[in-house]
Amino acid sequence: MVAMKINEDLQKERSKYNFDVEELTNFLDWGPQYTLRRRNLEQKVLNVKGLLDDIPEEYLSHKEKYENAVRKAVLYYRILQKENHSNISDEEKTRANFRNMISSAVFRDNSPFSLHYSMFIPTIKGQATEEQKAYWLKRANNMEIIGTYAQTELGHGTFIRGLETQATYDPETEEFILYSPTLSSYKWWPGSLAHTSNYCVVMARLFIKGKSHGIHPFMVQLRDEETHMPLPGIKLGEIGAKLGFNNVNNGFLGFENYRIPRDRMLMKNAQVLKDGTLIAATNSKLTYGTMVFVRVLIVNNMANLLAKAVTIAVRYSAVRRQSQPKPNEPEPQILDYITQQHKLFITIATSHAFYINAMWLWEIYFNVNKDLGAGKLENLPELHAIACCLKPISTSDTTVLIERCRLACGGHGYMLSSNLPQMYGLATAACTYEGENTVLLLQAARALVKAWSVRVEGKPLKGTMAYLAGTTAPKKWDSSVDSIVKIFQDVAIRKVSGAVETLKDYQKSGLSLEDAWNKASVCLTAASEAHGRAILLSVYKSEMDKRTASLSSSLKKVLLQLVELYVIYWALEKVSDLLLYTSITEKDITELQRRYIGLMEKIRPNAVGLVDAFDFRDEILNSALGAYDGRAYERLMEEAMKSPLNVEPVNETFHKYLKPFMLGKL
Ligand SMILES: CCCCCCCC(=O)SCCNC(=O)CCNC(=O)[C@H](O)C(C)(C)COP(=O)(O)OP(=O)(O)OC[C@H]1O[C@@H](n2cnc3c(N)ncnc32)[C@H](O)[C@@H]1OP(=O)(O)O
Ligand SMILES: Cc1cc2nc3c(=O)[nH]c(=O)nc-3n(C[C@H](O)[C@H](O)[C@H](O)COP(=O)(O)OP(=O)(O)OC[C@H]3O[C@@H](n4cnc5c(N)ncnc54)[C@H](O)[C@@H]3O)c2cc1C
After folding, report:
1. What is the pLDDT of residue 120?
2. What is the distance of C-alpha 92 from the center of its chain?
3. Is the CB of 291 under 6 A from ligand 1?
4. Are 446 and 572 found together in one domain?
5. Is there a domain that residue 521 lies in?
6. Where do the Acyl-coenzyme A oxidase N-terminal domain residues begin and end (predicted)?
7. How many other C-beta atoms lie within 10 A of the C-beta of residue 343?
8. N- or C-end of the chain: fewer Cβ atoms within 10 A?
9. Which ligand minimizes its atom distance to the CA of 253?
10. Which of 288, 309, 327 is the last residue of a domain?
11. Environment class of residue 436 by beta-carbon count within 10 Å: exposed (0-12), middle (13-18) or buried (19+)?
């Protein structure tokens, strides 16, 4: 362990802040009680021996990586499991865990149990009857069983209605027969499936008396509880090495007429009676509930990933010195280059914007879920539409910004010991899983097109769509933050109206709705993105106005600078839209650019403070470049010395290949 001597540049940075870092940490945690709770948990978990790696994961073989990850996961989840038994509500528990990133200390990649918590347990909660819950939830919470969520197949991920796995009801034996009719029907991708889980929720097509009744969830035992051998009729394996997620044990699964009892169908929403009578769900999309839950959580996960990446990049940029713009002066900290600030400060602001939006979205999710419990479905489509915008935007922005943080660290950002490449792997995976981003934007577009027809009928629009009732006339440019936020709504109105017009034009030219939809789909996804950006900006601004009211004036000032930076950054990014739909002039744009630079200058003295306030322990950052003490070079060297190639001064390949080759004998 490197001695705790703080790099001088970082020390200087920490004497410059003009706000209280702890106050910001409490704000981000949603209250000091959650900061305390999170820190206590971190302390408890990270003190457990054997949880952190001596040899970096990257030097292990594929098989060793998995085995090491399971060893650590067992230690880690045993402690978390105790925490989950604590006496707080599910809502409180989720909020308390929003900034819990301890698993990043344990796994640079991800955990082989992640699906158990993120999808298996939530599916039981959302899809099982009370009786089923009493049995399965207890077993899952105690981790007497380990489960996953198997939906995607080799042939279909996006198109759930196209899934081929069959669950045929046999009234004679009161069982379902699971069957994989084709290679493409094999489940493919579920995390933990290959060697970790012994149970699994399988999404399969229900057949009763030869008739298909759509996709339903089934609780399926995969492996013997004693020996862990796959049960007869179950074909299981791992899908192989990936860009990231290599600890996650993603697997494949096929069924050869595998029988399960009737009560293994999760029957909260639809039921199959003993005689084979089907009582259908009030809405077939209730089966998709777990996906909505995870999409909501992803926005928060992206805020956390960004916070981690930018902590590393800002601290490193404060200690790294490069070039000599002024002769006879020392090389500046790279953080003083405006281009570097342009890469990093927007990342800090984006993380804040995503935290705020994630909390707001969580409230909506929680309320809609309560409504669903009372049989009220009317707000579900809006929740689905919001999640279908915010999940894609947050994951794609995070992917871009993490890559930017990595590039901001120059060559050292390319090192796995920086942890930035692995974080990129995690972010880009989220662009695909839980609904591929383009596909989700197209789902949101369906809701927007519908909302537009409500407007055309002169009926009122509700909630996040209410602004779509506004005028389509070109807008007068006004550069106040509130006006720019409003202008993003105006841009969205124009993009939605334009996409609807395009769709109609194609239909009028004789195309079917489906063909017209396909032709208009680039405009449609752009409309959804504009709608999502309008939500992100307006929620960030309005929630910050509300939530900063009780903060000290110094912190409030810093946070509102970040809001302004975020708003102006996006105005400049989308300047072509502003030129199309508002009266903005070249002079206005130049003024915006100057204001943006001015804001970065104001934020610069607080940059290190802003990332310190994310309050990540070094173990959680898990990066040679980003530690609190700023001793990046010492840590890089320390990490390099862990390379297995550094164990011996001469590698055997010299004698085997190099020497004979150089002597001309090979
Ligand atoms: C650490 C974390 C690790 C996480 C690991 C990741 C785990 C996973 O990836 S699990 C697998 C996730 N898979 C997916 O997300 C698949 C994505 N695909 C889908 O969600 C759907 O099939 C989808 C929405 C694209 C299309 O579904 P489909 O049944 O064809 O619906 P479609 O015909 O387009 O729409 C029907 C209606 O249902 C509505 N609808 C669709 N989904 C939902 C939903 N979830 N809730 C409410 N309404 C919905 C639509 O809005 C539409 O309404 P309307 O007709 O009024 O416009
Ligand atoms: C790391 C990772 C973990 C995963 N974990 C799980 C898991 O635990 N459980 C599970 O069940 N699944 C899991 N998945 C699978 C994941 O949910 C699917 O990969 C995802 O839903 C996308 O589906 P797909 O792979 O079929 O892509 P496809 O749908 O084949 O997409 C390929 C391309 O086609 C386009 N496309 C598809 N349909 C349309 C359309 N209608 N209109 C326009 N364009 C379209 C897409 O935009 C994309 O560009 C995981 C995936 C990854 C990468």
Report:
1. 98
2. 20
3. yes
4. yes
5. yes
6. 20-146
7. 20
8. N
9. 2
10. 288
11. middle
Say yes or no: 216 and 341 in one domain.
no
- Pair (272, 408) in one structural domain: no
Out of 192, 215, 288, 380, give the residue to mutate to test ligand 1, the one with the largest number of ligand atoms within 8 Å of its CB: 288
Q: How far is the CA of 386 from the centre of ligand 1 (A)?
A: 13
pTM of the model: 0.97
Domain boundary residue among 242, 261, 288?
A: 288
The per-residue pLDDT for range 214-263, each reduced to its tens digit, is 999 999 999 999 999 999 999 999 999 999 999 999 999 999 999 999 99
CATH of the domain at 267: 2.40.110.10
Question: What is the distance, to the nearest Å, from the Cα of residue 265 to the centroid of all Cα atoms in its chain?
Answer: 29
Quick check: 451 and 495 in contact, CB under 8 A?
A: no
Lowest-pLDDT range of 38-47, 417-426, 515-524, 569-578 = 38-47
Same domain? For 250 and 362 the reply is no
Q: Does 250 share its domain with 395?
A: no
Going by alpha carbons, the residue nearest to atom 55 of ligand 1 is: 446
What pLDDT, on the 0 to 100 scale, is given for residue 452? 98
Between helices 338-373 and 586-603, what is the axis angle to 10°? 90
Instruction: Tell me, rounded to whole angstroms, the distance of Cα 127 from its chain centroid.
Output: 23
* The pLDDT of residue 472: 87
Q: Does the beta carbon of 380 lie inside 6 Å of ligand 1?
A: yes
pLDDT digits (tens, 9 = 90+) for 339-393: 999 999 999 999 999 999 999 999 999 999 999 888 899 999 999 999 999 999 9
Write the burial class of residue 409 (CB in 10 Å: 0-12 exposed, 13-18 middle, 19+ buried): buried
Confidence of residue 80 (pLDDT cuts 50, 70, 90): confident
CATH assignment at residue 516: 1.20.140.10
Testing ligand 2's pocket by substitution, the residue of 114, 163, 436 carrying the most ligand atoms inside 8 A of its CB is 436
Residue 97: the pLDDT is: 83
Count structural domains, the chain.
2
- The CA-based dihedral angle spanning residues 209, 211, 216, 222, taken in that order and rounded to the nearest 10 degrees: 60
Give the pLDDT band (50/70/90) at residue 266: very high
Indicate whether 375 belongs to any domain.
yes
Is the distance from the beta carbon of residue 68 to the nearest atom of ligand 1 less than 6 Å? no
The domain of 355 spans 1-30+291-630
Q: Check if 291 has its Cβ closer than 6 Å to any atom of ligand 2.
A: no
ipTM of the complex: 0.99
- Ligand 1 in contact with 285 (CB < 6 A)? yes
User: Which ligand minimizes its atom distance to the CA of 103?
Assistant: 1
Neighbours of 226 (CB within 10 A): 6
Mutation to probe ligand 2, out of 146, 203, 247, 432 (largest number of atoms < 8 A from CB): 432
Q: Would you name the residues annotated as active-site residues?
A: 434
Residues 497 and 410 in one domain: yes
- What is the rounded distance in angstroms from the CA atom of residue 497 to the CA atom of residue 108? 44
536: in domain: yes
Are the C-beta atoms of 191 and 148 separated by less than 8 Å? yes
> Ligand 2 center to residue 254 CA distance, Å?
19
Total residues belonging to the chain:
666
Tokens at residue 614, please? 């994310």
Share of the chain above pLDDT 70, in %: 99
Residue with tokens 């097509």: 205
Q: Judge if the beta carbon of residue 433 lies within 6 A of ligand 2.
A: yes
Do the domain assignments include residue 446? yes
Q: Is the CB of 534 under 6 A from ligand 2?
A: no
306 & 171 share domain? no
